[in-house]
Write a structure and sequence with these properties.
With 213 residues, the protein is α/β, with parallel strands linked by helices. Helix content is 38%, strand content 12%. The chain contains seven helices and five strands; from the N terminus they run H-E-H-E-E-H-E-H-E-H-H-H. It has a five-stranded mixed beta sheet. Helix 4 links the parallel strand 4 and strand 5.
Amino acid sequence: MAETPKFADLLLRAAEHIGAQVSDAAAELVGSRFNAEVLSEAVSRTSITRHDNDLPKSVCSARIDDIPVLIGELSGTALRPSIEPQLRRYRNQAMIARSWLASEAPNLQMFLIGPEGALSKPEWRQLAAEIEADDRTCRKLVWLYDQSPTGDEASLFLNRTFVARPWPTFQQQVLLDAVASYALPDGWEEAVDDKSLDFDGLVERLIVLEGNA
């Protein structure tokens, strides 16, 4: 099971302080199985395994004003060889979450928390801008801070996200507890059942299929 990112609770408390409604998201969003894989396992009674480096070690989920959000953290230096494997794992997690969100999938957001001291480093600010410009799988926003962040700093970050006020707090409720009601994009089930694809290949195939929809 993935760990909760260090300052995720601080972000969620800051969102509530701003006036947002914060609630739990479905556990499947941070799980290791695509929606179609769960259905396939139920039918075939075979288990699909996933390598440890396929998914992030630190990730949690929440609904903020009923918008699904994944929260993760970045570590190491602001160099592509260090960060790209982490981003790959978070993109993989986002694709799993999208499979469970069905029609809500385009609403998925991801908040990535940078390491301590990153805000004062130009290389981290440049990398954060590059990450935010890449909207594959979902919208991504990077929170950089200097020392131990405060609630005010968390609020400052949230003020450039959809959480910023004024924002409509009423969102259409979508139940996630009826697997049979999920409508996956065309081709997803076939891709999941394609045993020739490794996990990265599966994610790339799903991204292509979604782009062609």
